[in-house]
Amino acid sequence: MGLSGTVRALAVRSTGVARQLVEIHGALPTAGAVLARVATAGLLLGGTIKGREQVGIELRADGPLGGLYAVADARGAVRATIDNPYIDLPAREDGRFDIATALGKGQLIVTKSLGLKDSYRGVVPLEASTIAEDLCHYFYVSEQKPAAMALSELIDGEAGVRAAGGYLVQAFPGADEADLAGIERAISRIPPLSQLLADGVGPEDVLRLLIPDLTVLESYAVQHKCTCSAERFEHILVSLGAEELRSLADEQVTTELRCHFCNQVYHFSRRAVRELARRAAAAD
Ligand SMILES: [Zn+2]
Question: CB under 8 Å to 148, separation ≥6 — which residues?
Answer without folding.
Answer: 136, 167, 168, 169, 183, 184, 187
